[in-house]
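#lab-general

N.A. 3:47 PM
ok so I finally got the sequence cleaned up, no stray characters, all 118 residues accounted for. can someone with queue access submit it? mine expired

B.Y. 3:52 PM
send it over

N.A. 3:53 PM
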Amino acid sequence: MSTPRRPLLHRLALPLATLALYLMLPACATLHVWAADDGDSAHGVCTDCHTTEWTLAWGLVQPTPVRPTCPHKAMSRVRVKTNLGFALITVATLGIVMPQTVEWDCAPQNVPTEEFGH
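B.Y. 4:20 PM
back already:
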């Protein structure tokens, strides 16, 4: 008497889960906030414009505010990123710990302009 064969889905569950995990490892979520339409002109203005912030206790304990070191005290773009590792930390701690990477582009120096129509 032979043992019954497992359904195809049961035999493929582990390889499919491994493939899905492999495909998700390089994935990340990014939120962009643009202050101006010409954010591309700000590239290269700041060389160390990123930090990883840790929010604790479901947001009850907020991290210290990020203090950008922009030479002209202005930013043109902000990105808040998370990745699979950060998501796993958040899920494993049931949301008690939530790391996120914050990146920003400094705005280029303002160029004086004239008012239109005067």
